[in-house]
Amino acid sequence: MAQHRSGDGGAPTMRDVAASAGVSAMTVSRVLKNDTRVSEPARERVLAAVEELGYRRNETARSLRLGGSGMIGLVVTNLANPFYSRLALGVQEVASEHGLRVLLSNTAEQVDKERGLVEDLASRQVDGMIVVPAGSSHRHLAPAALRGMPIVLASRPPAGMDADCVLVDDFGGAEQATAQLIADGHRRIGFLGNPPALYTGAERFRGYWAAHESAGIEPDESQVRRGLTDVPTAEAAARALLDAPDAPTALFCTNNRLTQGAIRAVRALGRPVALAGFDDFDLADVLGLPLTIVSYDADEIGRRAGQMLIDRINGSSAGPIPARRTVVPTHVIRYGTH
């Protein structure tokens, strides 16, 4: 049996045992609890992997700080967006491996609501929190403001504080997708963006602009619409751009909701307009439209954030861990271009 160690070279985890035995983490958990629903061959493989890797049951849970609740908080900005559902699943996967439960909250992009939810989770003495911050200042999320509670930010970097964070390559993905539209021959590319105060909105606009500059094209600010928040506002903005005499031949959208709004506008218009956007979405491959999509593994954002938080909860015998930043890569998918 091939040995498998956790990526950071530390003590083996339940996930390592599962990978080595060729089963799920849930199966490993059931074997360790003497659950009779596990087949004998699977049980034997799990026990062999436990012995080979030197896995100690509940090692992480035992190492949690004294008085830990066995729960972590996850605060996101918009549960209606499938991105956050996938992120939550990634967090849940890691939390389950370490015997932790997840309390999920939604802020609807409201900073005041975020403050209240964070304070409530802190009062419940969760062992740590993962937060997708709503505002541009995050001082209320600093460990000092939360009495030393470990915290990790996801999707947006810390502002006014130091903290671990997991980001997407927002700039690179937007630049690559816009460059693809330019390579396809488009010179008038409209931009449909979320509020510029948001980190993702600002970075994706930078990528759009940089692709034009790299190609020696002067971007046209009259083709830019920012501050869009949902499908209806994106549809209205796209209709206005496409109805103009100098209408763009392509649109770049900064998230899946804005792309869907643009699709509605293009369908109503009845003439071909190339579309590019961030975030893959269901049925994008069967719409019959030329779509260039910036895709990435949203579950991986949650997994990385979860593991960072576990590291913080456990601490380090070598001393304090400096604030860390990791970036999940993007790649471009093309639909309807045959």
TrEMBL record:
Per the database record, which ranges form the HTH lacI-type domain?
12-66
Going by the UniProt record, its keywords in alphabetical order are: DNA-binding, Transcription, Transcription regulation
InterPro entries hit by this protein? HTH_LacI, Peripla_BP/Lac1_sug-bd_dom
One GO term in the molecular function aspect is: DNA binding
Q: What is the lineage of its organism?
A: Bacteria, Bacillati, Actinomycetota, Actinomycetes, Kitasatosporales
Pfam families associated with the record: LacI (PF00356), Peripla_BP_1 (PF00532)
Protein's UniProt name: LacI family DNA-binding transcriptional regulator
Q: Which residues form the signal peptide?
A: none
User: Which branch of life, at top level?
Assistant: Bacteria
